[in-house]
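Note on ligand handling. Small-molecule inputs were canonicalized before submission; formal charges were left as drawn, and no protonation-state enumeration was performed. Where a ligand contained multiple stereocentres, the stereochemistry in the source SMILES was retained. For flavin-adenine dinucleotide, this procedure yielded the string shown in the input block below.
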Amino acid sequence: MLSREEIYRFLIDVVGEDDVSIDVADLFAYSMDASMRISMPAAVARPESREEVAEILKWADEKRVPIVPRGAGTSLSGQAVPVKGGVVLDMCKMDRIKEIDLEDRVAVVEPGVIYDELNRELGKLGYVFPPDPGSAIACTVGGMIANNASGIRALKYGATVDHVLGLEVVLPGGKIIRTGGRVWKSSSGLNLTKLFVGSEGALGVFTEIILKITPKPRYCGLTIPVFQKLEQALEATVEIMRRGILPSAMELIDDICIMIINSVLEEKLPIGEALLFIENDGYSERTVKEESRMVKEICEEKGARKIIYTTDTDRIEELMRLRHTLANMLSKLRGENIPLNNIQDFAVPIGSIPEAVRELKAMAQSHGRLMAIFGHIGDGNIHLGTAINPWKEEDRKAGAEFARRLAEIVVKKYGGTLSAEHGLGVTKASLVELEHGDTIEYMRAIKKVFDPHGIMNPGVMGLLEVPRDEFVYMPTRVAV
Ligand SMILES: Cc1cc2nc3c(=O)[nH]c(=O)nc-3n(C[C@H](O)[C@H](O)[C@H](O)COP(=O)(O)OP(=O)(O)OC[C@H]3O[C@@H](n4cnc5c(N)ncnc54)[C@H](O)[C@@H]3O)c2cc1C
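Structure output:
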């Protein structure tokens, strides 16, 4: 095993002294992500080119040094935590938007570009890269691809995977490969581009990305129905989808979320057991109006007692931003300012939404747990937030057991998935066999083809081993 000094010397030769750190404060900052799990790396390097990345991966493969690529570190499942130490490759210096080509309708970018910054540039030309995660202000396009992230507009526009046309990837050993290209469709060979999307840094490092870009819709209407019963909101969701309407967003907020938002913000939401935020957008005002009218009609049929409607784009943005920041506010769930580090990210088939939510809620009640229910409900993506105190062992263990019970219902009874958008990372790796059964062996075989020595982000998705969720959590205070 190499010493920290040897690792440091090598990295300095490749990226220069200013872009390597073994300073304990830096290492601590890079030891965690938004999952709050921590594990210290040996060093951090900030490469600026594919050649530098290739040189590091060649050396790391020879010396068996774990490598964890990192964007902004906003992952919620610990996939940016260096659980086996090694080198964190901070990709944020590779943040150029190399090209926006409106004829081919593509953008070519480096992985460290921040989602909102890319969209600011695309927006000036009337275009958008639409997946829109709640962390849009900070997360990088490389991190989004590795997690196959998405968000409130995935219902109509798809997840990240639907927008990636091509990748340049540096593999362990230093080989640089290109997959896909600028064409919008191809049936040529196995689709390696899609394989790399969602690979959580476990197969290689992206150094260039070709994205499909989408013209920004010109018109938008936001309908907010207020329901007395959560079930009415869920039934309205299923009915809207059943009648063939495709909103650009359909978000659920339950009474616990409403209470928290109203206690934190000046903006006060109407009180009910549930609200839906249903956004319809399009290129013709008439279509948007017609779809919004149909949505309103369905919500009334299902029992909405009040319906707010606006077409004011600033107001829509304000309300959607409020929905975006909800995850942060949920730390108030127990009134103790406990960071909510266990937001579940399940998805079930659309038709099963009402029954599945009913059962999950009943499970929380029978365990005496306060559980916030929200999410991108239109595509079946249910977020469940229960505040556990990670610094209390008993609470942590009970929280993990509760999460497992929820997962069993979602996967076994409803044929759902453990993660609709956040990824499995290390925190959900112990559940991987619950959803994937024997097929995990094929995933492990693929990992071996690209990364025979297992240096790339070891621990994620149970590709090398199945870790148990017994990680060290971010301390409440750091001694200095
Ligand atoms: C408040 C909040 C809200 C969120 N809301 C959403 C949401 O609505 N939807 C959603 O999907 N997620 C959400 N997330 C989770 C997270 O923000 C996203 O998954 C995001 O895409 C991660 O991007 P990042 O740049 O922070 O990547 P990181 O967390 O740094 O890394 C993510 C993964 O990508 C890998 N990686 C990074 N760069 C590269 C590269 N160049 N090559 C290969 N692998 C790489 C890492 O190894 C890691 O496995 C949220 C997180 C927070 C904190």
